[in-house]
Design brief:
This protein has four helices and two strands, in the order αααββα. By secondary structure, it is mainly alpha-helical. The protein has one domain. Strand 1 and strand 2 form a beta hairpin. Helix 2 runs antiparallel to helix 3 and helix 3 runs antiparallel to helix 4. The longest helix is centred in the middle third of the chain and has 25 residues.
Length: 122
């Protein structure tokens, strides 16, 4: 029996390559998103402490990883359209339209859930 984690390094590398090169979000937004996440984490830590911040991050990142894996599976490694993930071909190259309502809605729900649980636990 083979390990389900045998191809994990290759899968992670292909996901990182996809995230670096996709056209789902403009380049400025990718940079803005990193700055926004760092700012939110620092402010959360400042106002609510380290324990609640770790709880929030653990929940949010776990839910976000689950959402990422759902998209990965449903789009067959980003090769087929699913919900707001639209794949099309242009001049022989695979292109992607901007993601939208479902993806961002789930990010907001993940964040609200993570905040709620982190505030209730400690």
């Amino acid at each position: 029996m083979t390990s389900p984690f045998k191809n994990l390094p290759g899968g992670i590398k292909s996901d990182i390559d996809f995230v670096k090169g996709h056209t789902l979000q403009p380049a400025w937004y990718k940079i803005f998103k990193i700055i926004l996440i760092i700012t939110v984490v620092i402010l959360y830590w400042y106002f609510f402490g380290l324990v609640k911040t770790f709880i929030f991050l653990g929940i949010f990142l776990t839910l976000s990883l689950g959402m990422h894996m759902l998209y990965r599976v449903k789009t067959i490694k980003y090769t087929q359209s699913w919900l707001d993930f639209v794949v099309y071909e242009e001049n022989g190259a695979t292109k992607y339209k901007h993601i939208g309502w479902f993806y961002y809605g789930m990010i907001i729900i993940n964040a609200i859930f993570a905040v709620t649980v982190s505030q209730l636990l400690d």
